């Protein structure tokens, strides 16, 4: 029989990253994998009897293990530790370098996992143990391949339903194991787009026709918003709420969308379909991007008076036009053509606001 040598065994161990042992906080074994069981001649009945101090580590217990591993893990001072120990196998004592991690199991119970980092042998290992290790590696790699593929598909699905700003920030905080995206005050430009009298349109047409009409307009609008470095924050019925770092880009996007919808309407007229008309409102200012909801379902949304003003301007806007606030106008006045300003009353505000229709940007 051809046995694997030290280098071949270590290569398998390095590639495996297998969890050999799961123990509770009393260091009583909860479970062990087949490779470990074969290597150290353990059976399933040991699952309820085996203790690391009495059955696994060679006696006497090294006091350094107590001080450097057991106590820090038990008290929670450390959640991850590397250490070396002698483990008594079937025929010999084996030097093992462990990676120990304190984690929560799926039921939120605190447990300790023992990964194998390096194993040093003095003679030929039990070949059955090696075969078990090889099989476990193959099974794990197959499972990881499936998980990776499923994760990629899930990521693509979630990205389609999540604002780009949230997705990008979530990736940054994922590395620190944060479950909440921190609240932040941001200076942005807000664009609201809404289809005039869409409720009446929806009542007169089949659901399929309604969804198709929305898709035609929304897909073009999203492409233009993305091309102008904007981000669709959410859809609100037949409305689109998007945000921009650059106010001029917001103005350009709104004008391009109105032009594109005009072209869509020309096709609808040729098909003897009812035309649809957008209103657009833009405002610039500060807003809070914050979390609302609970641990089961959250929304990371933009909140503030600047957002509300943009929404109100969209409601006041004439169809097929783009209405901007004084705040936005001051930021882009050298780069756009406008109609003369006019004073308007906005619900929720005592003083009138000056607003402008954009003609060109």
Distinctive features:
Alpha-Beta Plaits, 361 residues, elongated, single chain, alpha+beta, five-stranded antiparallel β-sheet, Beta-Lactamase, nine-stranded mixed β-sheet
Structure description:
- There is one protein chain.
- The mean pLDDT is 80.
- The radius of gyration is 32 Å and the shape is elongated.
- Strands 6, 7, 8, 9, 10, 11, 12, 13 and 14 form a nine-stranded mixed sheet that branches. A five-stranded antiparallel sheet has the order 2-1-5-4-3, sandwiched between helices.
- It folds into two domains: 6-151, 2-Layer Sandwich (Beta-Lactamase), CATH 3.30.450; 164-360, Nucleotide cyclase, GGDEF domain (Alpha-Beta Plaits, 2-Layer Sandwich).
- Strand 4 and strand 5 (110-120) form a beta hairpin.
- It has eleven helices and 14 strands.
- Helix 1 (6-16) packs parallel to helix 5 (127-160) and helix 8 (207-227) runs antiparallel to helix 9 (247-270).
- The protein has 361 residues and is an alpha+beta fold.
Summarize the entry for a quick read:
By secondary structure, this protein is of the alpha+beta class. It has helices at residues 6-16, 34-39, 52-56, 63-75, 127-160, 164-174, 198-204, 207-227, 247-270, 305-316, 326-332, and strands at 19-23, 29-32, 80-88, 93-104, 110-120, 184-195, 230-236, 239-244, 278-293, 298-303, 321-325, 337-338, 342-344, 353-360. Strands 6, 7, 8, 9, 10, 11, 12, 13 and 14 form a nine-stranded mixed β-sheet that branches. Strands 2-1-5-4-3 form a five-stranded antiparallel β-sheet, sandwiched between helices.
């Amino acid at each position: 029989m051809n046995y694997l040598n030290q280098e071949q065994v270590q290569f398998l161990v390095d590639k495996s990253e297998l969890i050999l042992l799961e123990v509770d906080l009393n260091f009583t074994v909860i479970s062990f994998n087949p490779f470990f069981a074969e290597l150290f001649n353990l059976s399933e009945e040991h699952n309820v009897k085996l203790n690391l101090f009495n059955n696994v580590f060679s006696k006497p217990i090294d006091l350094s293990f107590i001080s450097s591993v057991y106590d820090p893990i038990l008290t929670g001072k450390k959640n991850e530790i590397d250490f070396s120990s002698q483990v008594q196998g079937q025929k010999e004592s084996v030097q093992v370098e462990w990676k120990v991690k304190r984690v929560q199991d799926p039921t939120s119970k605190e447990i300790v996992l023992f990964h194998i980092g390096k194993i040093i042998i003095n003679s030929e290992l039990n070949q059955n143990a090696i075969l078990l290790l090889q099989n476990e590696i193959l099974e794990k790699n197959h499972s990881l391949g499936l998980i990776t593929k499923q994760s990629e598909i899930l990521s693509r699905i979630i990205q389609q339903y999540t604002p780009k700003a949230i997705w990008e920030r979530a990736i940054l905080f994922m590395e620190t194991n944060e479950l909440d995206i921190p609240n932040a005050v941001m200076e942005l430009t807000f664009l609201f787009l809404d289809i005039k009298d869409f409720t009446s349109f929806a009542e007169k047409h089949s659901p399929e026709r309604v969804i198709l009409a929305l898709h035609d307009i929304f897909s073009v609008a999203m492409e233009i918003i993305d091309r102008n470095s904007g981000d669709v924050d959410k859809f609100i019925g037949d409305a689109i709420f998007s945000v921009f770092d650059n106010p001029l880009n917001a103005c350009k996007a709104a004008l391009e969308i109105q032009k594109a919808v005009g072209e869509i309407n020309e096709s609808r007229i040729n098909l003897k379909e009812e035309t649809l008309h957008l209103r657009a409102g833009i405002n610039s200012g500060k807003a809070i991007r914050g979390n609302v909801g609970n641990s089961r379902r959250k929304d990371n949304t933009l909140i503030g008076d600047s957002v509300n003003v943009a929404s109100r301007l969209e409601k006041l806007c004439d169809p097929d036009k783009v209405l901007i606030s004084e705040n936005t106008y001051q930021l882009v006045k050298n780069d756009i053509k406008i109609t003369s300003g006019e004073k308007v009353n906005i619900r929720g505000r005592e003083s009138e606001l000056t607003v402008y229709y954009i003609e060109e940007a």
